[in-house]
Amino acid sequence: MKIERIQTFLVAPRWIFVRIDADGLTGWGESIVPKRALAVIGAVQDLARNIVGEDPRRIEDLRQRMYRGSFYRGGPVLATAIAGIEQALWDIKGKMLGVPIYEFLGGLARDRVRAYAWVGGDQPDHVVEQVAERMADGYTAVKMNVSGAMHYLDSFDKVKAAADRVKAVREAYGDAVDIAVDFHGRVHRAMAKMLIQALVPYHLMFIEEPLLEECNELVHGGVFDRSIPIATGERLYTRWDFKTLLGESAVDIIQPDISFTGIHELEKIARMAEAHDVAVAPHCPNGPISLAATLQADACLPNVVIQEHSAGMHYHTGYHGLPSADLWAYLTDPDLLRVNEGFLYPPQGPGLGIGLDEERIGKSAETGWELRDVIWRNADGTVAEW
After folding, report:
1. Fewer CB near the last or first residue (10 Å), C or N of the chain?
2. Residue 101 CB contacts under 8 Å (≥ 6 apart), including other chains
């Protein structure tokens, strides 16, 4: 059995699909980093030159080759290129043997995984209204961004605005909904301390990326109030990155993204976290292939506590001029990845367990898309973290 061809497809709204053909079987994966899409496609092509003609069943060996074969390694572009290919290899292997991918990783350790929904809005009443819509859909947990651009030291008005949004949801719904707040790595240390202190009264489910990944060591010990669980890790790529995070910081929840880690590496990372008594909430504001792959890993991991997904996110509806498409646009059976009473279920079919509308994928890829950098600036003109 040999890998015959590896292709990439830029499809609406901002997704990078990877397809592998091998002896009559087709496997699909998904890469990310949409603002560097051409670099990702180039990385996939570079890797393809080295593994076309090889046996697709030797997934671990091929991943080792892709990771270790070049003197320079690491970073988001190479990581997501490897992950997209690796997902497609698992899809082929599952289809070849007629079993879902989770059967290769120890089998089911759960029946379903709790999901949370993203909510936005700059005003408290807007957030309350969106949470009401999500709760009507069966969700019991939501996540919102903490703020827009924020300087190293910034106005307390921004702190109050963030706290007021959370306060409005808590007062409207009491403890019926869990609330997570994403700092998005855009908040610097001094302001993060102020924001966290302001949010303590509202009993958050977790705070996400309180600081940039480069500053994770600062989360240790008493730098932040420890009554709120801290989640981070969406911009880490391998078990070696997470080894440092788990060993040096006071993180409570890690958030690996399967379109950086790949399926098997995410499973290994989650096992490491379990040994540190750390929970896992996989990052996945991505497309349907990435979500299906994540659910295959979630199925085997008892310390996965909640799952992100992109249904209903603003990315799908003309974000910065991108074409529109919802999470289920390319699925032959959209119900496989729909949230049911606040839960997602691992697809049961072979491989990733989903079917894709290849004609629609091809048509969307004919147009493609382009996403340029979104530059935020502080009031003094300096570039702000996005």
Report:
1. C
2. 90, 91, 93, 94, 263, 293, 296, 297, 351, 352, 353
Q: In whole angstroms, what is the distance from residue 178 CA to residue 173 CA?
A: 10
The two tokens of residue 31 are 């890469």
Side chain identity at residue 47, one-letter code: L
Q: Which CATH class is domain 104-352?
A: alpha beta
Specify whether the CB–CB gap between 368 and 374 falls below 8 A.
Answer: no
Q: 41 pLDDT exceeds 70? A: yes
Contact between 297 and 107 (Cβ < 8 Å): no
Query: What does the domain layout of the chain look like in residue ranges?
Result: 104-352
Catalytic residue, chosen from 184, 188, 309, 316, is 184
State the residue for tokens 């030291």. 153
pLDDT at 348 over 70: yes
What would the mean pLDDT of 1-14 be, rounded to a whole number?
97
Which of the four pLDDT bands, split at 50, 70 and 90, describes residue 219? confident
The predicted model gives 104-123 an average pLDDT of 92
Token duo for residue 278: 């750390």
Mean pLDDT of 368-383: 94
CA angle 347, 209, 266 (to 5 degrees): 35
Pair 16, 27: CB distance under 8 Å? no
| Catalytic residue, candidates 151, 264, 283, 309 | 283
Active site residue 320: no
Q: How confident is the model at residue 226 (pLDDT cuts 50, 70, 90)?
A: confident
- Does the pTM surpass 0.85? The reply is yes
